[in-house]
Specification:
Layout lengths: L2 H18 L23 E2 L2 E2 L3 H12 L11 H10 L2 H14 L1 H17 L11 E6 L15 H8 L4 E4 L8 H14 L5 E8 H13 L8 E9 L5 H8 L1 H14 L3 H5 L20 E8 L10 H7 L21 E5 L11 H17 L1
Parallel strand pairs: 3-4, 3-5, 5-6, 6-7, 7-8
Antiparallel strand pairs: 1-2
Helix pairs in contact: 1-10, 2-4, 3-4, 5-13, 7-8
Length: 368
C-alpha cells in the first residue's frame, strides 16, 4: 500500500467522522432545496409547503399503494420489500404517507398547523410556570458551530416563550451510559423546576434513552414533562458498524480519537444491531409527552454532508442518513415526519412551527 493511498484513506476517514458527528466538515451542509431549482413547486399538499409535481406524484402513488396500510406495518423487512419492488424514493413516500394518516400522528400534525398560525399573532408566555428546556447535545457539540449541536436556535425560541433554557453538560464523546448518568444527575439537580422538557438530536437522543433506562423510574424523573426528540438516534446506527468492521477505518479512527483526546468508546456505543447499547425497546414513562420529529428525504434532496451515509444505508432500506426509517418511530408516541429533511435538518422549519411543538408539550401536560 503506497503512501498516497494511505493519505487518501485517512482524509476520507476524517471527512466521514466529521460529517457524521457534526464537527467542522469538509462537506458543505447545504440546503438541499437548491436541488429543486427550476421545478414547478407550489401549493400545499400532504402537509408539504411548495410541493413539486414530482413529489406529489410520489405521494399520490404511495397513497394508492395497497400494501402495509399502517405505519406499524413498516418494519425493516417490509420497507426493504417495497424498495426492491420499486425504489428507495417510493419506499420513503410510503413511510411518509402512512405517518401522516396515522390517527395519533394526524392529531399532532393538525394541532401544529393550526397552532403555528396562531403564533403569527401572539406567542404564549410561560414565564410564571417555572419551566426549563434542557438540551441533551449531540456529539462534538463543544467543537461544533455549523450544525447547532447544542440547540442554540431552539433555545433562543423557547426563551422568547418564557422558558428557561440550559445545555446538559454531557461529555462530547462520552458513552451513552456515561452521558445517560449525567442527564439523570442534571434532572435531579433541577427538581425545583415545575417541569423539564428535554430537547435532543442525534446522539443526544440516544443518551437520553439511556437516561430513561437508568433513572426513568426514580421520583425526580417525574419532573420531566416532555421530550422534544429531533432526528434522534434511538436504536443506534449501522453506519457505526461499518466503521468498526473496516480494519483500516477502525485503526485510523482510534488514532484520530486519541490525537484529539476523544473517547472511542463513546463512538462505538452508538452502533446498531442486536446487543448494542441502544438496541433495547424504548419505554417512555407514562407522564412524559413526546414529540418525535423524523426527517424523510427523497434521493434528490439529500445534503452533501449526509449523502455518503444515505447511500450506504440505502442497501438496508429508506433512511434519513444515519437512521433507517423503520427504526425511527417510537410505538405509542406521535411522530411528525419532516418531508425533504435528512438527518441534518438543513431545510429550515419555521420558527412558529417550533413554538407550536413546544406549546403542544406544555398544554398537553397541563391537561393530564
Amino acid at each position: 500500500m503506497n503512501d498516497s493511498y494511505k493519505l487518501t484513506s485517512f482524509k476520507l476517514l476524517i471527512i466521514l467522522f466529521f460529517a457524521v458527528f457534526s464537527c467542522t466538515a469538509d462537506r458543505k451542509l447545504n440546503n438541499p432545496k437548491e436541488n429543486l431549482a427550476g421545478m414547478q413547486c407550489e401549493g400545499i399538499d400532504y402537509y408539504v409547503d411548495d410541493i413539486c409535481e414530482s413529489e406529489k406524484a410520489l405521494l399520490d402513488w404511495a397513497a394508492a399503494y395497497p400494501k402495509y396500510r399502517k405505519l406499524t406495518d413498516l418494519t425493516r423487512e417490509n420497507l426493504k420489500a417495497i424498495m426492491d419492488e420499486t425504489d428507495i424514493d417510493h419506499a420513503a413516500a410510503v413511510f411518509y404517507h402512512r405517518a401522516i394518516i396515522d390517527p395519533t400522528n394526524r392529531k399532532l400534525i393538525e394541532y401544529i398547523f393550526t397552532k403555528q398560525n396562531e403564533m403569527l399573532r401572539k406567542t404564549p408566555d410561560y414565564t410564571k410556570q417555572n419551566l426549563m428546556f434542557a438540551i441533551a447535545p449531540g456529539m462534538f457539540y463543544k467543537d461544533n458551530t455549523e450544525v447547532d449541536a447544542d440547540g442554540k436556535m431552539i433555545r433562543s425560541i423557547v426563551r422568547a416563550m418564557g422558558i428557561q433554557d440550559a445545555v446538559i453538560p454531557t461529555e462530547q464523546t462520552g458513552t451513552v451510559e456515561e452521558n445517560g448518568a449525567i442527564i439523570c444527575k442534571f434532572i435531579k439537580d433541577n427538581e425545583s423546576k415545575n417541569g423539564i422538557i428535554i430537547g435532543s438530536a442525534s446522539k443526544g437522543s440516544g443518551d437520553f434513552k439511556k437516561a430513561i433506562e437508568l433513572c426513568g423510574n426514580e421520583p425526580h424523573f417525574k419532573k420531566v414533562s416532555g421530550w422534544f426528540n429531533f432526528g434522534g438516534i434511538n436504536k443506534g446506527s449501522l453506519v457505526i458498524n461499518a466503521m468498526m468492521d473496516h480494519w483500516l477505518y477502525s485503526t485510523e479512527g482510534k488514532i484520530y480519537f486519541w490525537w484529539k483526546g476523544y473517547n472511542w468508546e463513546g463512538l462505538i456505543s452508538m452502533r446498531g444491531g442486536e446487543n448494542a447499547p441502544l438496541s433495547g425497546e424504548l419505554r417512555i414513562p407514562k407522564d412524559v409527552i413526546v414529540v418525535n420529529i423524523v426527517g424523510v428525504p427523497h434521493s434528490q434532496i439529500v445534503t452533501k454532508r449526509g449523502r455518503p451515509f444515505y447511500d450506504y444505508l440505502a442497501q438496508f432500506g429508506p433512511n434519513e442518513g444515519l437512521n433507517l426509517l423503520s427504526d425511527s418511530f417510537i410505538v405509542g408516541t406521535p411522530l411528525y415526519p419532516s418531508w425533504r429533511n435528512d438527518h441534518y435538518f438543513a431545510v429550515p422549519i419555521q420558527e412558529e412551527r417550533i413554538k407550536a411543538f413546544i406549546t403542544y408539550i406544555v398544554e398537553t401536560k397541563k391537561l393530564k
